[in-house]
Design a protein that fits this description.
This protein has about 140 residues and is an all-beta fold. It is built from one helix and ten strands. It has one domain: Beta Barrel (Lipocalin).
Length: about 140
């Protein structure tokens, strides 16, 4: 059984490697950093910055921002609810009709962990795997 994670476990810098595999077999890769920094609500601001390489080979800078609260609920940067991270790992769902985002968190190799998203919808069909390794 995996030890339940607490918000303070995520604080700090993480090396982030991500790959996105579309149903048609095309792939994209992301490399960069994720930072979890204390915010004024007792949670953490999640800031992601790196480079995305598209299936064509084109590279671009990519950023994301979320807000993680003390109970591991995640919100988009604009305050809209996103999903709840299971403290022991496991699945969560975000519905954004007509699309469905299903994630599985795996904390069994802590302090390395991963989130695997299965995204489906009328124009979306891909799996996105993100691996976080604690930066020293």
């Amino acid at each position: 059984m995996t030890k339940p994670r607490q918000i303070t476990d995520f604080e700090g810098r993480w090396t982030l490697t991500r790959w996105i595999v579309h149903a048609d077999g095309t792939k994209a890769d992301f490399t960069g950093e994720a930072r979890f920094e204390p915010n004024d609500t007792g949670g953490l601001a999640y800031l992601e910055d790196g480079h995305l390489t598209l299936p064509t080979g084109q590279q671009m800078r990519a950023t994301r921002a979320y807000r993680w609260e003390a109970d591991l609920s995640v919100f988009f940067d604009d305050g809209r609810p996103f999903h709840q991270v299971p403290a022991e790992g496991g699945e969560a769902v975000h519905l954004c009709p007509p699309d469905t985002y299903r994630v599985t968190y795996d904390f069994t190799e802590w302090p390395q962990w991963q989130a695997v998203w299965q995204v489906t919808g009328p124009r979306k069909d891909y799996v996105m795997t993100s691996v976080y390794t604690q930066a020293r």
